[in-house]
Amino acid sequence: MEEITIDMLSLLKKRNDIAQEIGKIKNQEGMSVSNESRENELRDVVKRKCQEINFDSNAAMKFLNFLLNESVKAQSSESNTHLAVFLKAKELEQQGKKIIHLEVGEPDFEPPTSVKQSLSEVYDKGFGNYGPAKGLPEFRKEIANFANQNFDAKVDFENIMVTPGARFGVFLSITTLLDPGDEIIVIEPAWPAYRQCAINSGIKVRTVKTKLENKWEPKSEEITSCINENTKMIVLNYPNNPTGKVLPKKLLDEIVEIAKKHDLF
Q1: From CA 61, how far away is CA 177, in angstroms rounded?
Q2: How many CB atoms are closer than 10 A to CB 140?
Q3: Is a pLDDT exceeding 70 seen at residue 219?
């Protein structure tokens, strides 16, 4: 058993080295890191092999997703992320250059005076120390009341957690609900954090591409075609970042029904 494990590690190292070399070629040619059609072909090969050797295909798919994610990470460049572009833009600003930020939601105006006053009041009231990890109970109760009154929800404040920014909320949701090797479907274009948080958590990302010509709307059959035994979640990034698109209610209801049918988050 130990010898097999060591052999697997050596093969993984060899595979990652090859992936890095492929990544360099893709970068030079301006190619995308992921190739979902090729990944689907590989899935079919793995499924056939599982039938041949009488092995659990679900376990094999999770392992394959791990390998695919490792390849993506090996081939990806940190310089291509929107945060890297943002940091470069801030560097240029410090040099006195005028920058119009299109990489992150960076306002070019100051917060309202009321916000500044509220922050000052919070400081004066002594809220400068550590608070409850889930957020102030009073605040969470207000959130619950708002959701219940405005969205016909039945939410208890104990089930609400306040996170330090949306990215951590996304990461927490993915890591809490999913396991390494699971898959999520992301409708793109989308905020990069969904993909990044998933990949860094060992979750395989399947994408459904949308285009301006189609009003940035996905087709239900495209979403359904991405679903397999390892799919656990559909990400609905709406109102969409970066397009601002809001899906028609009919299409949104169709996607919700797909999620219910396949027991997806």
Answers
A1: 18
A2: 20
A3: yes
What share of residues in the chain are helix, strand, coil (percent, to 5)? 60, 5, 35
Taking the C-alpha atoms of residue 36 and residue 244, their distance in angstroms, rounded to an integer, is 26
Residue that the structure tokens 């997703």 belong to = 65
Q: What is the pLDDT of residue 79?
A: 53
- CA dist., res. 26 & res. 74, Å (int): 12
At 80, the pLDDT band (50, 70, 90 cuts) reads low
| DSSP reduced 3-state for 204 | strand
How far is residue 45's CA from residue 193's CA, in Å, rounded to a whole number?
31
CA distance 207 to 44: 18
Query: How do 204-209 and 183-188 pair as beta strands?
Result: parallel
Question: Which residue has better confidence, 40 or 251?
Answer: 251
Residue spans of beta strands (DSSP E) within the chain: 183-188, 204-209, 231-235
Q: Express each pLDDT in 225-264 by its tens digit.
A: 999 889 999 999 999 988 999 999 999 999 999 999 999 9
d(CA 86, CA 231): 32
* CB 244, CB 238: distance < 8 Å: no
- In the chain the domains, ranked by start, together with CATH numbers, are 132-162 (no CATH), 163-265 (3.40.640.10)
Helix (H, G, I), strand (E, B) or coil at 134: coil
The 10s digit of each residue's pLDDT in 90-117 is 899 999 998 888 777 777 788 899 998 8
Place of tokens 């397999």: 228
Helices (H) and strands (E) in the chain, counts: 10, 3
Reported pTM = 0.76
- CA dist 104 and 106 (Å) reads 6
Residue 206 is predicted with a pLDDT of 92
